[in-house]
Amino acid sequence: MAELVIARNPDAGSSLGFLLWLPLGDGLVFRTSGTWPRTKALYCHPAEPGEWPADPEVVERVALRSCARRGAAIDVVLDRARENRSQIVYTRGRGRDMVFWQSPRTRKQARPQVRTPTARAPGADELEILVDAHERYPYTFPSQQVRTARRTLPAGDYGVVLGGTLVASVERKSLSDLVSSVSSGRLRFALGDLAALPRAAVVVEDRWSQVFAQRHVRPAQVADSLAELQVRWPAIPIVFAETRPLAEEWTYRFLAAALAWARDENAVGTRLPGAVTELSSGTAPEPSTAEVRAWAREQGIAVPDRGRLRPEVWERYRAAHGCPDGDHDRHS
């Protein structure tokens, strides 16, 4: 029976850690970075059949229902219930031939049939978004004119500040992280923290329907828990944005709207409802050492390339920005 075989790439220095073998002709061999295109299309580098090792370290071996080349793509159907359909697609990009391995899910995520707008959100001519210091692979908002700065946020992963107060925050979740945090109860505590802010939301980088495609947990249990959390904290929407780029776009527009609303409330002298969480004991968010170092150099102040800054440098920065004195010794 014909099989698709995935083995570890014996070349330890290669960034493509796997070899994919397909039974077409004398055999097609590709170097690739994963064992299945689950979250994104995988780049494949065509290799000579002779690169297939004589004694491969097989990671996965799956029987094929069909493997046929149709035009510029190879349709691959595996003999299993899930993750059974994929394509090897030959295309051109950056002036050269390229090959990608994609599944129906990654194809839909890559082309959700929408184009995110580049127009700024109303009132967001100058928008600074704070990114939690613990956030891995953060949004950069490349299609919008946004400044980002790293801070330790009391709640959420992305936030905006007005007058030293965190006025809105967004908690970002991949689907796997959402399911894990629901099952462990972490999301309940995260929503409790977000509820202390004037405005907050949770954005999920996937579709609601994928909750019911989970195999390691009961989908109904996850759905019921999400419904209970939404009823308990109705002011904190849980938004399924389908893809990471759409989640990033939604986050930008939510935070821009929240900041504009907070400015309007301040302008008419209205107190923000509910408890307000501040980033640093009632003061403006603490700048990083790198930010103060860059400011000092712009002012012609001599500072070292690494290590702590002198107390007088912090004092001049605080005086220039109207910041109260703080504990600069914790910055290193």
Largest sheet: 8 strands, antiparallel, barrel
Number of strands: 14
Q: Would you state the CATH class of the largest domain? A: Alpha Beta
Ends distance: 61 Å
Instruction: Sum up the overall morphology in one term.
Output: globular
Summed up, the domain count is: 3
Q: What series of H and E elements makes up the topology?
A: EEEEEEEEHEEEEHHEHEHHH
Describe it for me?
InterPro entries: E3-bd_dom_sf (IPR036625), ERCC4_domain (IPR006166), Lsr2_DNA-bd (IPR055370), Restrct_endonuc-II-like (IPR011335). The protein has helices at residues 104-110, 175-184, 186-194, 219-232, 244-267, 289-298, 311-321, and strands at residues 3-8, 18-22, 28-32, 42-47, 58-70, 73-78, 85-93, 96-102, 127-132, 146-151, 158-162, 165-173, 199-204, 238-240. It has 332 residues and is an alpha+beta fold. The protein has an 8-stranded antiparallel β-barrel. A 6-stranded mixed β-sheet has the order 10-9-11-12-13-14. The radius of gyration is 25 Å and the shape is globular.
Secondary structure layout:
Blueprint: E1 3-8, E2 18-22, E3 28-32, E4 42-47, E5 58-70, E6 73-78, E7 85-93, E8 96-102, H1 104-110, E9 127-132, E10 146-151, E11 158-162, E12 165-173, H2 175-184, H3 186-194, E13 199-204, H4 219-232, E14 238-240, H5 244-267, H6 289-298, H7 311-321
Domain ERCC4: 128-208
Pfam families: ERCC4, Lsr2_DNA-bd
Protein name: Histone-like nucleoid-structuring protein Lsr2
